Amino acid sequence: MKRIILSVMTVAVFFGLIACGDRGGQEEPAAIAEEENLPVEFILYNGAEPETIDPALISGVPEHRIYLSLFEGLMSYDPETADPIPGVAESWKISSDGLTYTFKLREDAVWSDGTPVTAQQFVDSWLRFLNPETAAEYAYMMNMVIEGAAEYNSGEAGPEAVQIRALDERTFQFDLTGPAPYVLGMLAHYAFSVVPTHVIDEYGDDWTEPENFVGNGPFVLKEWSPQEKLTVVPNETYWNRKAVQLDQVTYLPIEDNNTAYNMYKNGELDWSTEVPNDAIDEAKLRDDHQSNAVMIVYYYVFNTERPPLDDARVRRALSLAVDREEIVEKIRRKGDVAAYGIVPPMKGYQPPETFSDNAEKARQLLAQAGYPDGEGFPVFEVLYNTSETHKKIAEYVQQRWKETLNIDVELVNQEWSTYLNNRQEGKFDIARAGWAGDYKDPNSFLDLFISTSALNGGNYTSAEYDELIEKASTMPGGEKRYQVLAQAKKLLMEDMPIAPFYFYSQSNMIDLDKWGGWYTNVLDIHPTKDIYMK
């Protein structure tokens, strides 16, 4: 049985033309459309309006979901486990020392315009990501593992230093800086994607417009109406086209998760990627509420270049003054775990706690920094993007710092793209942040804070920390490597450039009696190419 959710009804409700709770006696759209052989449209709440769909420029979860529909790298994600599985590469070999990887590309891997996906395009795409004049924010991920990438990305060497090469049209090879045990997981991430360089050469920045777009993923871009919707349809040239069962996927950019939750309950969304805090008790009673622990951390980042936040004692005082258990139990109420470090627990790795909430210690540290009982402490701002959850947490932290440290802060709310730009450019005092692991390794979190990372928005700099992360990147997997990473984490929490609050228990709304191919997993990654109507 297939169905389509009527797009006219969806748009009407989204813009308030029809009240969500008043259907005028009509049947639900799903009931109307349950007929054989109708196209299957899958509609999801995707959070904020995507900034871009260029893999070299994206950096957020909303963009990542769209990326998984439109592009595919050497590796992809297993929908059930989020482990890496073959993508454009059908096979690979690893040298005996673990430093050289050789990938054989699929013969039937082609772009949506029929042009073959070649090894040289991987070379050109990766160099585009690393180019110091146009470098992607995620270039630091390549810098950590690909030999010569850091030298090119920093401008110290030319592109010839980067040890990536096309051995022939379908054979791509690269050398690592060390035997990184997590490299296959990294390769599924958009930082290592391939882009249609032949189309970029023709259209420049306009290559992502629907009329120009060419991709190699399971879907292609059909329509992008900013602040309204982005839709994709099956890519007829995709090498595994037969496995794609959805006829259209529609991403709705809704920043208010209360609106999204109500739309879901009214049958106008098939997947709501978040549940508002006020509705969590109701959602938990529903069979279509899917909840599980995921590798995502919620934290505040301090701008370490702005006094008095340039003083580690001040940063530690602000962090220790927060009661994390109150946040997870009274505000979130979703089963989150209080975070006393940046790295969440994961298979094979249990990170040690390096600090604890301590109001008295916080007051002592603030006094040592020259602000006894908050005297003389300047008023500063806390930046967060539009979300009821972010607002409530910011208000709690504001009140907690006033009561515990006698300091005042102002709260600044901005829409997603403005907030993201200001955070990335360091135009803030303290900013809300969150990080979802890109692969199952502590490095996916700790790499963020190396001094050369474009995502190190607080401009934290520590030569010792950089050395520890670099050392770990050259070590094989095992306990000795974890010990080095534990040292890095301990140092990070002593310097406290960020204040971690909690590790997520993610809540999704999707009816798994109706939809197959969607599974809970620790990365909260759910490729649309695997979703189907039961």
CATH class of the largest domain: Alpha Beta
Largest sheet: 6 strands, mixed
Low-confidence stretches: 1-34
**For the CA atoms, what is the radius of gyration?**
24 Å
- Gap between N and C termini: 7 Å
Strand content: 15-25%
The total of helices stands at 18
CATH topology of the largest domain: Dipeptide-binding Protein, domain 3
Structural class: alpha+beta
Assign the CATH architecture of the largest domain: Roll
The count of DSSP E runs of length 2 or more, i.e. the number of strands, is: 19
Shape: globular
How much helicity do the residues have?
Answer: 25-40%
| Overall mean pLDDT | 91
Instruction: List the strand order in the largest sheet.
Output: 13-17-12-16-14-15
CATH superfamily of the largest domain: Dipeptide-binding Protein, Domain 3
Domains (count): 3
